[in-house]
Amino acid sequence: MTTTSFNAESNVLLLGSGFRIEGNIHGAGTLLLGGMVNGSIQAETVKITESGQVLGVIECSQLDIAGKLEGGFHANDVIVRDGAFIKGSQELLSKGTCLVSGTINGALKANNLQVENLGSLIGNILVNQLDVYGKIIGAVDGASVIVRNGAVVDGSIQYDNLAMESGSDITGQLERKRRTPSASANTQTLTVDFPEALIRELRKNGAPDSLKVSLANGESLPAWINVDHAHFQLVMQKSAIGDLRVCGQTVRIRLEAGDEVITFTLPPESQ
Predict the structure, then answer these.
(1) Which pLDDT value is given to residue 205?
(2) Confidence band, pLDDT 50/70/90 cuts, at residue 52
(3) Range in 4-8, 143-147, 245-249 with the lowest mean pLDDT
(4) If exposure means fewest CB atoms within 10 Å of the residue's CB, which of 61, 107, 170, 211 is most exposed?
(5) Quick one: 190 and 153 in the same domain?
């Protein structure tokens, strides 16, 4: 099988709808694909148009697909557009954010997965954060799961945190994960102290519920962040902070008490 290579100097490789490659493509830039590739693809960014088709595995940082993929992908951020179809005969992995408006048929591992209104996912899902507006057929194993109004989940859900809006449809068993004492003892944590101004405001108000903690966009905290009211700290799983660093991601946290509003970024630079 032949290999077609391109480098960062050439920047972009364009393969139009009339072209077909029997072999692998390897490069450091961007691949714009409207034709067909029967082989694996390695690139920084891969964009597949409606006429594009890949039979193989795609490894990239950014994957944007409106066409068809039969095989697998290893990527950071993934966009599966309306009309796109992915048949996962091999591993499907998104280490960053995965937005699904098309169809995925296959088991998926993802960090932050959002299934849009027109999106459907058929297969088991292992995910850190899941937000469902569309349809899932298969078992879900997630830390933080939100099922929106109009969403359909036909399968069991194992979760740490689960939110279900009125009008959502879940067919299957709901099971909250149980942490054994031994597992808890082996979980390493990091702590971040509240700023002094916030602590003073909390002591002045005197009520634990006077503190409001959320993501900066207003969403609830992920399951790996807990609030220690007694010691004025955030307690976080060390493994989750490590995953953020590996993926080059950050999380913005908002703390609010009285007139004091403070936002900051995780992972903390000092840790």
Answers:
(1) 64
(2) very high
(3) 4-8
(4) 61
(5) no
Give the pLDDT score at 189.
78
b/e code 231-261 from CB counts within 10 Å (16+ = b): ebbbebbeebbebbeebebebebbbbbeebe
**What residue type is 22 in one-letter code?**
E
Q: Both 170 and 190 in a single domain?
A: no
Residue ranges in the chain assigned as alpha helix (H): 181-185, 196-205, 238-247
**Residues 191, 142, 263, 244: what is their CA dihedral angle, to the nearest 10 degrees?**
70
Q: How far apart are CA 78 and CA 88, in angstroms?
A: 14
Give CA–CA dist 111/17, Å, rounded.
33
Return all residues near 156 (Cβ < 8 A) that are at least 6 apart: 139, 140, 172, 173, 174, 175
Query: Quick check: helix, strand or coil at residue 203?
Result: helix
Number of domains in the chain: 2
Q: 186 with 223, same domain?
A: yes
Average pLDDT, the chain: 85
